[in-house]
Design a protein that fits this description.
Blueprint: E1 3-7, E2 10-13, E3 18-25, E4 33-39, E5 46-51, E6 57-59, E7 67-72, E8 77-82, E9 91-98, E10 112-113, E11 117-122
Length: 123
Amino acid sequence: QVQLVESGGGSVQAGGSLRLSCVGYGATYTRSCMGWFRQAPGKERERVATIAIDLKTSYADSVKGRFTISKDNAQNTLYLQMNSLKAEDTAMYYCAADFSEFFACERYDYKYWGQGTQVTVSS
């Protein structure tokens, strides 16, 4: 049974930084696509950043240059470093993982999801 547990959310002022973490239990990070997604009230879920098995990363245009996704395979932990935060970054952030062969990391239908961690940015 795979379980993903996020942490690190909170409330910050615009321009501040936060680092989200996602620890995986029963998961093998070396064999997975992993990603961070977010959803604000009344809006659709948005793909924020993904990291592939070969460590290739991709980012939403809205966060490029401000957010960095990384992972520590030994610790089974996924990170999202968020700098220069804006009010529009306010959302619930979720980590996700999928171990399917040939799974394209830019997809939205990841098999495993965490419970989410709230990020609130005040202007």
